[in-house]
Amino acid sequence: METDKLKLKRQSLNVWDMLKGEKDDAFMFCDGYKLFLDKSKTEREAAEHITALAEKEGFKSIDHYIDNKLTLKPGDKVYSLYKGKQVVMFKMGRVNPEKGFLMVGSHIDAPRLDLKQSPLYEDGKLSFFKTHYYGGIKKYQWITTPLAIHGTIIKEDGNAIKVSIGEDEKDPVFFITDLLPHLSKDMMVKKLGDAVEGEMLNLLIGSIPFEDKEEKERFKYNILLLLHEKYGIIEEDFTSAELEVVPAGQARDAGMDRSMVGGYGQDDRVCAYTSLKAIFDAENHKKSIFAIFADKEEIGSVGDTSMSSKFFENFVYEILSLTEDKNPDMAIRRSLQNSKFLSADVNAAVDPNFANTHDKYNAVYLGEGVAITKYTGVRGKSSSNDAHAEFMAEIRRLLNKNKILWQVGELGKVDMGGGGTIAFIPAAFGMDVIDCGIGLLSMHSPWEISSKGDIYMLYKAFKAFYESDM
């Protein structure tokens, strides 16, 4: 009996071979994605931008339904914004909620530098802000890089002041200084991870002293004066502020062929944007569908705006209370246990410059489509969800049916390191969960690299999932 060789062996394909007729669509889609990155440098900005786009698409705040005692009907579109940092969106389907939901969950925080609570000081006749890094970074990547300051200052009277300095071409930018090679003998013999210490990540912000020479801290005082003139704040206001230092500048096309996107925060805002667009565009979905945008994943999903908080569960309870179900306490248990959840997060694509970090037979490659990660975790799959083979088969069947290019891959070699996602958190409800995203180069750096073809495939995958019969 002759065997079809093409069916026996799984073929490694390139995303652009499958997108021959859709290249312009993919490029246009990524124009919107780059704009999203530019407007979403922080989790607060991302949440604000997501809700603004949702309202344009006809989504209404859940408070509108609660306050007016309205009942949710098939086709209704609802969202909830929590503490300015977490968003959940919902579209009502035709199937009884107890049959389960289809959910895609991503995170909108990203590695960065946070200003400390008492950040401003002067030294060496210069003014600085002290920072504390957030999430996993390589500290040396942040020095001598143009940086911007984004965030919110809450004054004692409760008034909020938004801050964004360094993005407009007329704005100043900020730098963390480095030592010149001529004097770096001692520094150059240190391990890469030790050469730049956390307490050295001090942001240079000024060099002009206050004109009154009787003032003891002339350089610091001059900065305080400038901040008071622009924002009306005093030094104590820093204690109730969230000011984040991020790379300055817009996301850009990368490569001579413009096939890639270079930009900050693509882990995990690439999944946030693609799932957002997918829930907007999903049609004729039988089951109700969710898009979740969580905070604080980069520090272990802890805190009240993280996926671990009760906000998501409470939102589902509110949704069920707005349906005709008379027993939401039981319905929430059944509906969540019967749900399917895509933990939308990125994976580390193979970089030929560092090829020894991956098992090449079980690795994600840039330009080979959607990345399905059955398990993450550290070494022995610690802190991993490890999806069931049955759900893996469902996802595989869905993607193949919709001609969506996909690949499987682990997060590096077994003992190399590892990492986690939000997958284990929704799995605690008993639902099927699997990690699904794309591969990135230079992940967690100030400028990450993605493939436009992969991004477009991910959008198509999320849309197909929402419209599926799972």
What do you see in this structure?
- The chain has 470 residues and is of the alpha/beta class.
- The chain has two domains: 5-110 and 264-466, 3-Layer(aba) Sandwich (Aminopeptidase), CATH 3.40.630; 112-247, Aminopeptidase i, Domain 2 (Roll), CATH 2.30.250.10.
- 29% of the residues lie in helices and 23% in strands.
- The chain has 14 helices and 22 strands.
- The strands form five sheets. The chain has a nine-stranded mixed sheet with strand order 1-2-3-13-4-14-20-16-18, sandwiched between helices.
- A hairpin with a 2-residue loop joins β5 and β6 (126-134).
- The longest helix has 17 residues, at 23-39.
Features:
23% strand, Aminopeptidase i, Domain 2, 14 helices, 9-stranded mixed beta sheet, 470 residues, alpha/beta, 22 strands, 6-stranded antiparallel beta sheet, 29% helix, 2 domains
Provide the fold topology.
Layout: H1 5-8, H2 15-18, H3 23-39, H4 43-56, E1 60-61, H5 62-67, E2 77-82, E3 86-91, E4 102-107, E5 112-123, E6 126-134, E7 147-154, E8 160-165, H6 185-188, H7 192-195, E9 203-206, H8 218-231, E10 241-247, E11 252-254, E12 260-263, H9 266-281, E13 289-294, H10 311-321, H11 328-337, E14 340-344, E15 347-348, E16 370-373, E17 377-378, H12 389-401, E18 406-408, E19 418-419, H13 424-427, E20 432-437, E21 439-440, E22 448-451, H14 452-466
Parallel strand pairs: 1-2, 4-13, 4-14, 14-20, 15-21, 16-18
Antiparallel strand pairs: 2-3, 3-13, 5-6, 5-10, 6-9, 7-8, 7-10, 11-12, 12-22, 16-20, 17-19
Family: Belongs to the peptidase M18 family.
InterPro entries: Peptidase_M18 (IPR001948), Peptidase_M18_dom2 (IPR023358)
Keywords: Aminopeptidase, Hydrolase, Metal-binding, Metalloprotease, Protease, Zinc
